[in-house]
Design goal:
It is a single chain. This protein has one domain: Rossmann fold. 33% of the residues lie in helices and 27% in strands. α3 packs across α4, α3 packs parallel to α5 and α4 crosses α5.
């Protein structure tokens, strides 16, 4: 379980979230619908991943403070999937997925290859193995970010606006893979925008008035 207690998040002097209490349970897909442009949704996910600090309150995973966890432990537990970017320009797709596994010593080289190939196949991007980031479109970049999270086998997947630009067929296939992750007791949290299909999610939230509320 990923839990937020009294969380305050801001961009400079601008408050984005105040006194936010929320929890995301394992085995469920949660959709957080954006409340508007610059609503802080991406910042919130990055705070949940420990990438950005909070201004108050605490975010914890399995009762451990996310921001106090050793970096390698946090990396293996929680993966943030960027909406744009998030890839090293000098590395191929294969190495963008593989390098974090090597750097953190998660597994040996044989298993690295197995994990990377499996993740790319699951998301239909095996043909991009040798491509470089500048050769990818926005959708492909997001899929590589997601494949990296799959390869890491993180317990928590934080996914920022995945659907934009995807065909319905492609999106349906990716959703099936996310449902498979949830079935393995992973925590899946997605930021979605108006018009995105999220009927498959187990829980639907909306960003409103500097907090998140249940969406009906």
């Amino acid at each position: 379980m990923l839990e937020l207690r009294g969380v305050q998040v801001g961009a400079g002097s601008t408050p984005l979230f105040e006194g936010l209490d929320c929890q995301f349970d394992a085995g469920l897909i949660t959709s957080i619908r954006k409340g508007g442009v610059l609503d802080g949704s991406s910042t919130l996910l990055k705070c949940c991943a420990g990438i950005l600090p909070v201004q108050g309150g605490e975010i914890s995973w399995k009762t451990q403070s996310v921001h106090q966890m050793p970096v390698d432990c946090r990396f293996q537990a929680i993966s943030y999937c960027f909406e744009a970017g998030g890839l090293v320009s000098l590395f191929t797709v294969y190495n963008n997925i593989a390098i974090p596994l090597r750097y953190h010593g998660i597994c040996d080289e044989d298993e690295v290859e197995e994990r990377v190939q499996r993740a790319m196949t699951q998301l239909g991007i095996a043909h991009l193995t040798h491509a470089e980031p500048h050769e990818l479109n926005d959708v492909q970049q997001r899929l590589v970010n997601l494949a990296r999270a799959f390869a890491i086998d993180a317990d928590v997947l934080l996914i920022d606006e995945l659907q934009t630009g995807m065909s319905q067929v492609m999106y349906s296939k990716v959703v099936a893979q996310l449902q498979a992750q949830a079935a393995r007791n992973k925590t899946v949290v997605m930021v979605t925008t108006s018009g995105d299909e999220d009927g498959f999610a187990d829980r639907h939230l909306l960003i409103k008035d500097r907090t998140v509320v249940e969406r009906t």
